[in-house]
Design brief:
By secondary structure, the chain is α+β, with helices and mostly antiparallel strands. The chain is built from five helices and ten strands, in the order E-E-E-H-E-E-H-E-H-E-H-E-E-H-E. The strands form two sheets. Strands 1, 7, 8, 9 and 10 form a five-stranded antiparallel sheet that branches. Strands 2-3-6-4-5 form a five-stranded antiparallel sheet, sandwiched between helices.
């Protein structure tokens, strides 16, 4: 099965009030930890008058961090991180800022509030789904071009570039999990006269 990766479409900001405490949820794409830490620093500066600036982020398959920022342990950062995990989104940072309204929420109330703010921020940003693709090139004659095009359409290939000279050169991307079948199909259909040449792998939006 082709590996699918979920990423945030857009940076988003949401706000809601729970028992007079104002919660501001912010979500954005991050490429690495340095970028995440820099944005966290900026948010803490932007909301320097806030009671808490809680954050969590997940990068790739192995990096996940969170901070309660002086809220009771387990009531803030971890709920934000769990919201990210439940969404399935990666390469994302969520910062939840709280302005205390004078009424204690209790441990359960804090967990719900931070989870809600994080989930709202992620939902507002939307989701893009990316998949593994393999990039190939094919050289064919003009007489074979229409037949190749049909095969590419059948396998839902993404045509990147087509060059017409003495021959037709097609550069395209195809889902990695069907690429082996596609190459076998072309070899069989054209009796080995046309061979797709693998170039590299990439990740594209679905």
């Amino acid at each position: 099965m082709n590996k699918k990766i979920k990423r945030l479409k857009n940076t988003a900001k949401v706000e809601f009030v729970e028992k007079r405490s104002v919660f501001i949820g912010y979500s954005t794409v991050v490429k690495n930890e340095n970028e995440a830490l820099e944005i966290i620093k900026q948010k803490k500066k932007e909301y320097s008058d806030a009671t808490h600036n809680v954050y969590a982020y997940i990068i790739g398959d192995s990096i996940s961090r969170y901070s309660d920022d002086n809220e009771p342990q387990g009531t803030a950062g971890m709920p934000v991180l769990n919201s990210i995990r439940m969404s399935g989104i990666t390469d994302v940072l969520v910062v939840v800022t709280r302005y205390f309204g004078g009424i204690l929420l209790g441990a359960g109330g804090l967990v719900r509030a931070y989870s809600t703010a994080a989930s709202m921020a992620l939902e507002a940003g939307g989701i893009s789904i990316f998949e593994d693709y393999s990039v190939y090139s094919i050289d064919c004659s003009y007489s074979d071009y229409s037949k190749i095009t049909i095969e590419l359409n059948n396998y839902e290939a993404i045509i990147d570039n087509t060059t017409f000279s003495d021959t037709v050169k097609i550069e395209f991307a195809i889902k990695t999990d069907v690429s082996y079948n596609f190459v076998a199909r072309i070899n069989d259909a054209f009796n080995g006269r046309i061979v797709p040449i693998f170039k590299h792998s990439r990740i594209d939006t679905k």
